[in-house]
């Protein structure tokens, strides 16, 4: 009798499991959107599917932010360069400061981006100082000391840092590509500023070669720092089973 009851109980449990599976399949087929709707963002049950050790992907900046970054960094560059060329470097630096504040206000983790800006300004100023001491270039105005590049150059390095996790985040993990891009784009940007009157290349060939080497070394380092300090991507949820509202 006990064996019979045990077999019968197992049969009932098996039937109950099968009915539950059939019921889930039925509701998955006939509810709006099908079973996949349970996994869609914003569904109230989606948080129950998060498993320990798994995290949601970190979204990258949207197109609107990327285009805004391109626009504001270019405006800051032109303002600083033209301000230096016309002998008013302080006024030309104000738009750069505005861009930095705008970026920090928008970044999900502004402290990380602020650290990246300071690193870029410090490393860039140090590299510019080494090139300046070779006597191959001169700045039009704004230098507080003949031994140091002007502050508006440091401000432009900080502005450049706002692009490292936005429009230039595709350089993350690609040091050779970053070096190649820096070796070409960096000297060309400086040459454009010199043609607008912000600087003078005393020995153009040597200056361009040194600037190319400078950027080939600096940009991969900045890209690595940007990847480590990324304050633009949304923070990933902490490990563990959590329920989202």
From TrEMBL:
<keyword id="KW-0812">Transmembrane</keyword>
<dbReference type="Pfam" id="PF11086">
    <property type="entry name" value="DUF2878"/>
</dbReference>
<feature type="transmembrane region" description="Helical">
    <location>
        <begin position="176"/>
        <end position="194"/>
    </location>
</feature>
<protein>
    <submittedName>
        <fullName>DUF2878 domain-containing protein</fullName>
    </submittedName>
</protein>
<dbReference type="InterPro" id="IPR021306">
    <property type="entry name" value="DUF2878"/>
</dbReference>
<keyword id="KW-1133">Transmembrane helix</keyword>
<feature type="transmembrane region" description="Helical">
    <location>
        <begin position="206"/>
        <end position="226"/>
    </location>
</feature>
<feature type="transmembrane region" description="Helical">
    <location>
        <begin position="114"/>
        <end position="132"/>
    </location>
</feature>
<feature type="transmembrane region" description="Helical">
    <location>
        <begin position="75"/>
        <end position="102"/>
    </location>
</feature>
<feature type="transmembrane region" description="Helical">
    <location>
        <begin position="152"/>
        <end position="171"/>
    </location>
</feature>
<keyword id="KW-0472">Membrane</keyword>
């Amino acid at each position: 009798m006990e064996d019979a009851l045990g077999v019968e109980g197992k049969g009932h449990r098996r039937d109950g499991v099968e009915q539950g599976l059939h019921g889930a399949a039925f509701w998955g087929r006939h509810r709006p959107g099908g079973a996949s709707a349970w996994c869609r963002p914003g569904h109230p049950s989606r948080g129950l599917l998060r498993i320990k050790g798994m995290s949601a992907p970190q979204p990258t900046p949207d197109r609107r932010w990327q285009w805004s970054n391109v626009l504001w960094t270019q405006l800051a560059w032109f303002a600083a360069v033209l301000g230096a060329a016309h002998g008013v470097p302080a006024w030309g630096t104000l738009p750069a400061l505005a861009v930095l504040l705008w970026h920090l206000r928008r970044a999900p983790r502004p402290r990380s981006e602020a650290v990246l800006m300071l690193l870029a300004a410090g490393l860039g100023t140090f590299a510019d100082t080494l090139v300046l001491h070779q006597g191959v270039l001169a700045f039009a105005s704004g230098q507080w000391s003949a031994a140091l590049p002007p502050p508006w150059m440091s401000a432009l390095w900080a502005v450049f840092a706002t692009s490292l996790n936005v429009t230039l985040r595709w350089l993350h993990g690609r040091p050779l590509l970053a070096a190649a891009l820096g070796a070409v784009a960096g000297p060309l940007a400086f040459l454009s500023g010199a043609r607008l009157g912000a600087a003078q290349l005393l020995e153009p060939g040597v200056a361009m070669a040194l600037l190319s080497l400078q950027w080939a070394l600096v940009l991969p380092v900045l890209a690595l720092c940007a990847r480590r300090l990324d304050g633009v991507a949304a923070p990933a949820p902490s490990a563990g089973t959590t329920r989202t509202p």
